[in-house]
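As promised in the previous annual report, we have extended the structural survey to additional targets. Below is the entry for Transcription factor A, mitochondrial.
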Amino acid sequence: MQMSVLSRLFSSTRLWTTNIRSPGLCSGLKTSAAGGGETATLPVKPKRPVNAYIRFLQSIRPALKSKNPKASPTEISKLAAAQWQVLDLANKSKLEVEYKKDQAVWLQQNAKYLSQLTDEQKEEIRQSRVEKSEEKAKREHRKRVKDLGKPKRPLNGFLLYCQDQKPKNLTRDENRSQIKSLSEQWSKLSETQKEPYQRRAADAVAKYREDMLKWEEKMIAQDNMDVVRRKNVLIPPPAKDAAPPTKSSKAAAAAAKPRPQ
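The corresponding structure token record, generated without further manual editing, is:
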């Protein structure tokens, strides 16, 4: 846990990895992890064609980026949308015809693709979609709580020590070496030497808990119950409706009732 956090702490640039195509892809099949490391083969799914507007966007994006080098992707999309609104009908119709032609080909290819799938492959695809949906929901939830101002969890004593000792402008290999070195240094520190960092961490945790309580009270007041920890949500117990009396219970009650003398 500490090592993974340290990797992010020391990395000053994003590291990119290269995806290597497997032999299965070259032969019309792709491999995917399934069942705890085992691999399963799936036919390569045909790519759905993009619609007329996306084709237009893709065709003019390079020119827009060249003319507006500082524009964000969202701003580029807005510029493209404005040009699409004034695009003549002939060019729009041409793009639409191209899309429908590719769409017809894709429908045939996709039908063939689906017919090749076994029950196991269909289940694998279904499970993959479920996992992607869950990951998307988690990303959206993290973004939402961030936008709502959720307090950040504080660093522990060891990470505070690393933060103070962190050199700047390290290469990837230097980062790895530094992580290992700092971990060894921390393990050799006495409790007295660690105490300032542990105290800072304890103070940060206390403040974090206070901030979280205030933030959750605010979220409850704003009816954002889904971002509040369950233990802090007070939900009244459901009302227990009394069961209607049965004939036997009525008879028993009548028998138990004292008769007038």
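Residues 191-221 form the longest helix (31 residues). The CA atoms of residues 12 and 49 lie 38 Å apart. These points will be discussed at the next consortium meeting with the crystallography subgroup.
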